[in-house]
Design brief:
Pfam families: GTP_cyclohydro2. This is Gtp cyclohydrolase ii-dihydroxy-2-butanone 4-phosphate synthase. The chain is of the alpha/beta class. Helices cover about 35% and strands about 15% of the residues. It has a domain of about 120 residues: Rossmann fold. The strands form two sheets. Strands 2-1-3-4 form a four-stranded parallel sheet, with helices on both faces. Strands 5-6 form a two-stranded antiparallel ribbon. It is globular, with a radius of gyration of 16 Å.
């Protein structure tokens, strides 16, 4: 429900593409600082990037904990991960989808805010596909670069290898810029 999302309204259409981060709720990473994921670090980096740019939008999508499986199921997935199961297979072994998040509500909110062209901060190709409707146009992908740690390195590798996330890691697991710049109408 749109009323669940805090918004800072503004009038008119922006003169230049807006820096946008559509962030999925992650209580463990965003609130408790879990090192198992890079969510909290991505959230902090997005806020810093928006501040540095001078303006932008951070849309925090609630109800998307654990790629949409919920906090309770995420804890069960964590237990499987403790036994060596990767993040994707943990969801599947619980009979849940690898990623059930939808971005249509976020796209509608951005469109209602008057955003047309955006510079999207994301590594997730599914997010691009979910946001390009409703008159929105992604003119640039801004990589979400974070420093991996021993607790999330395999998680990041799984997201890259099995889920198509646009993450570049060197041999030591250090996340690097992938050199992606402005692309007209980025496709998933």
């Amino acid at each position: 429900m749109a009323s669940d999302y805090p918004l800072m309204p503004f009038a008119g259409r922006p003169e230049r593409p807006v820096l946008v981060r559509v962030h999925s709720e992650c209580c463990t990473g965003d609130v408790f600082g879990s090192l198992r994921c890079d969510c909290g670090v991505q959230l902090e980096a997005a806020l810093e990037d928006i501040e540095r740019d001078g303006w932008g939008v951070l849309l925090y999508l609630r109800g998307q904990e654990g790629r949409g499986i919920g906090l309770g199921a995420k804890m069960h997935a964590y237990a499987l991960q403790e036994r060596g199961v990767d993040t994707l297979d943990a969801n599947l072994q619980l009979g849940l989808p690898a990623d059930s998040r939808e971005y249509g509500t976020g796209a509608q909110i951005l469109a209602d805010l008057g955003i047309g062209d955006m510079r999207l901060m994301s590594n997730n190709p599914k997010k691009f596909a979910g946001l390009t409707g409703y008159g929105l146009r992604i003119v640039e992908r801004v990589p979400s670069l974070t420093a991996p740690n021993p607790d999330n390195l395999e998680y990041l590798r799984t997201k890259r290898r099995r889920m198509g996330h646009m993450i570049e890691l060197d041999d030591e697991g250090v996340q690097m810029s992938d050199g992606v710049g402005s692309e007209d109408g980025v496709e998933a």
